[in-house]
Amino acid sequence: MSLLNEIVKGAFYRLGYQLVQAPKWTRTREVLEHGGHRLINWRKPDGELDLAGYRREQELGNRAKIAQVWTSEDSLMFISRWLQDRGLSPQFIICHGTRNGFEQRVFSSFFHCEVIGTEISPTATQFPMTVQADFHEPRVEWARRADLVYSNSLDHAYDPAKALRSWAESVRDGGVIVLEKASDSDPRGVSDLDPFGITLAELVVFLMETLGDIACIRGLPGVPHPREGATYHNMIVVEINRASHWLHRDGVAIAG
């Protein structure tokens, strides 16, 4: 375990958390099938979104897993170097669904720039560089400011297309969205806590269906040290360029 992870782990004890094994989340709600991906239905019988229920579930999951980090320092350093080698020198980074702020600390230590993270749970206020926010909702003060938006939490979205469009609104032209994706968020893994399940190939298509008028995919690098048991583990690098109106649903550009 890295020194950074040890520091984070020790901080939780000082905050008074008892570290326990997080429970397995189950599916108690309807599962919708959409063109190869699966989505938990967080709508009430009348069609209204059960936003309060969704947020309660996310907060319960956050508190149960508060000391856990899904990504790794190696993976974040890898994508930081990958982006730097291709000329990206971020001045402002946004990380979504960060739980305890681990991602912010790694990115800020590498790029030495402003980094902010979002977390839907009130625990957000206990961690530096973190604000309490629902990542489905855009923030006016971030509009077209970010050089990099990173997340490994799209599987937590009740409406992944809405979340992606919100994230894109924060990115300047020429900036990127980086999604970290492994096989454990494939369709079979959906639950009330992780409502969205999709394979890597289907996610590429979904991204272009959602953002293809303003974005293209610039890379799908595999991380050097995948998650244990993962059949794949990649970063998806999506470049935002609103001037490229020719990029529609079939506008996929892959650059290794």
Strand-helix topology:
Elements: H1 3-14, E1 31-34, E2 37-40, H2 51-64, H3 73-85, E3 92-96, H4 102-111, E4 114-119, E5 130-132, E6 146-151, H5 160-169, E7 171-182, E8 196-197, H6 200-211, E9 215-219, E10 233-240
Parallel strand pairs: 3-4, 3-6, 4-5, 6-7
Antiparallel strand pairs: 1-2, 2-8, 7-10, 9-10
Task: Jot down its keywords.
256 residues, alpha/beta, Rossmann fold, seven-stranded mixed beta sheet, 10 strands, 21% strand, globular, disordered C terminus
Describe what this molecule looks like in 3D.
28% of the residues lie in helices and 21% in strands. By secondary structure, it is of the alpha/beta class. Strands 5-4-3-6-7-10-9 form a 7-stranded mixed beta sheet, sandwiched between helices. Strands 1-2-8 form a 3-stranded antiparallel beta sheet, with no helix packed on it.
Low-confidence stretches: 16-22, 246-256
Helix and strand string, N-terminal first?
HEEHHEHEEEHEEHEE
What would the principal axes of the Cα set say about the shape? globular
Walk across the major sheet and give the strand order: 5-4-3-6-7-10-9
Portion in strands: 15-25%
Q: Estimate percent helicity.
A: 25-40%
Main beta sheet strand tally, sense and closure: 7 strands, mixed
CATH evolutionary superfamily: Vaccinia Virus protein VP39
- Give me the secondary-structure category: alpha/beta
Overall pLDDT: 89
CATH C-level: Alpha Beta
